[in-house]
Design a protein that fits this description.
826 residues, alpha+beta, Beta-galactosidase, Chain A, domain 5, Glycosyltransferase, Maltose phosphorylase, domain 3, 3 domains, ten-stranded antiparallel β-sheet, six-stranded antiparallel β-sheet, 40 strands, 27% helix, disordered N terminus, transferase, Glycosyl transferase, glycosyltransferase activity, carbohydrate binding
Amino acid sequence: MNTLLSSSYGHFDDARREYVITRPDTPLPWLNYLGQDDFFGLCTNTAGGYSFWRDAKLRRLTRYRYNNIPMDVGGRYLYIRDAATGDVWNPGWKPVKTPLDFYECRHGIGYTRITGARRGISAEMLFFVPPGETLEIWRTTLRNTGETARRIQLFSFVEFCLFEALNDMTNYQRTYSIGEVEVDSSDGAIYHKTEYRERRNHYALFGCTHPISGYDTCRDAFVGVHNGLHEPQAVLAGAARNSIAHGWSPVGSHFIELNLQPGEAREFAFLLAYVDQGEPASENPRFTDPFVINKTKGRALMAKYKNIAAVDDAFGRLNVTWTSHLSAFQVTQSPDPIAARMANIWNQYQCMATFNLSRSASMFETGIGRGMGFRDSNQDILGFVHMLPDRARQRILDIAATQLSDGTCYHQYQPLTKKGNAEIGGDFYDDHLWLVLSTCAYIKETGDRAILDAPVGYADKPGGTENLLHHLETSIAYTMKQRGPHGLPLIGHADWNDCLNLNCFSTEPNESFQCAGDVKGSIAESAMIAGLFLYATRELTELYRWLGRAADAMRIAQHHAEMLDAVETHAWDGEWYIRAFDAAGKPVGSNVCDEGKIFIESQAWCVLGGAGAGNGRARQALESVHQHLYTPDGIILQQPAYSTYHLELGEVSSYPPGYKENAGIFCHNNTWVHLGWCQLGEGDRAFEYYLSICPAAKEARIETYRCEPYVYAQMIAGRDAATPGEAKNAWLTGTAAWTFVTVSQGIFGLQPGYDGLRLDPCIPRSWPGFSVTRRYRGATYHITVKNPGARSKGIESLKIDGRKISGNVIPIAVPGSTVKIEAEIS
């Protein structure tokens, strides 16, 4: 596939699975993630960001200051100084920002390669986390491209976080006194051991495989009290201070001196590692020396990567690992290269990031205030389960364990402890239903019905012997119990739209949107949750039928029918489905409203749940979306925007018009409408909508869009905004998983089922066909679909290894086999 349009800042290199950034001054810092297992790093195109083990709040290795000026300062830096002239620069441009003769950042799949050159010296840094390891490698190459010998001085730099990020940022009366380090200059290792004294039994290692001439671990000594990272005094002076931090702010810096002949290059690596000792340093912490760390594991890492060949081998393993992950779904031929590019590479890659980190750590989330979301993580599984189903299985069980026995859930939990966050309550009344969707998606992908019997207790009843199926039943029962006067589900504090808070009763002038309303006694109802319930009960009914439990299937189907009747009787507003009823019983998202007449969420979920299927309302609801909400930048959340604050609606009206939940383009919920159009067989409309929020289609307008052109953003400013088309909050958004569901199952139409792979594409009429390779339950399916009749939907002919079969379900093949599928839409 060839590179298409490029922006003034970079372009796609599809053959290498990279986005190539050729200017460092991107409209916003453009981010990549390092790591795919337990160790993670945020790395921008100027080497900014930070690293952590498992939990960005509780095990952060390096510091990062959000909301900084400039925005992206602090990261993994290498300062390069010409010993003869004193000229100082960074290969990633920041923080010194000395003009470079050449700059390139290649964000790849699990790695970032930054190359800078100035005055005859080229520096390349490759940042990556080897599969299965708890360290980050900076493979470094310095080359003299000039015609004279050069003496070059290098200074590495990281600023250590004292592991617990919130305490590190706020509790200075303590943290300024507890920072501790050790240095082993013989092997270039700096050990950050703050917290070791507290019996935490872990430390961070920042090592260099090249012989060093000095080091620094005290920020004041290296940077200077009155200096910034763009002018560190040790670098300007051309000498390390060999400082040891005692409290204050510990850092890690290696000082390296190189004499490079013309054409000569040096290759070596820096290692940033998290070392967990596993066992306490002593059985009696009160009377043992807690200052001396066990360096055995750290020294083993230094020895392992001393040879650059070991570094290259680790990078090779990373690429092999990702090739395997991505090979579960690959579009091998498509009339639209943007769709193939995103589906094959970047969309799946983003799904891995959201699975690993939920909404916790990005350029817009600090990693402190949010952990793993119950609702979020269940949805993330939908776009991830095909890659690593075993990890998805464990995540489902972890999520279920944070549900409470009444059916509600901890809205978030910390990944390190897997304990729910009690500060964020369980009164989001949609949370529990997403567990049904993720569980069914997992079983369809794997056929593993045993997960339903896996023991999972409830968070408020530790040690319980309930199983996962019990949780699914509890979720359905809770919604059936918690309904309002119209028979629709109660909304609680909020549903998927966290900002639609319909239980604000206070009329005090200084009350915020989090008002003192009695959520549990409220009658506020959600049509969006009703639609989600319809979808969940349809999924659970199908599961019970596959399990051969006809009575249970009928019981759940009756719940579906009862809710469907309530939706069609009370939620239809004439041209669309209302959004909700507020605490006073008044409709929200209705023609009777002056503002916020129509919302996107209830149209999408009522249609996806089966409402309006037999009476034309489904099509009418989506046509109303097209008429009132659709724009070339995506679908606006609601219209008209709220021009003033409405206490009775909560936070949704606290945003300025056109931003976030107040008539912004929330890309996450756009995908549900995309699937709705696929369900109705409207391939042209579905694909038009798909492209409207696709970041790879934004390169021509990147100065307006601003966010990364390779991963989805949470929000794009709507037409009511002062900056329409501007994106915010890229990377960690449910848009990733749902867009992959849209493109893989809706447009290309490969839908995992309990008894096989259903082929039901919905494509633009102009497409002559496409080809896809799918790994499913251990077999590999090479699928070619032709469209001689210029239609969008409807498989009329299906051949498996040359043998024609009826219907459109591809039977499950023998694991390890390869199957050739030929199909026609006609």
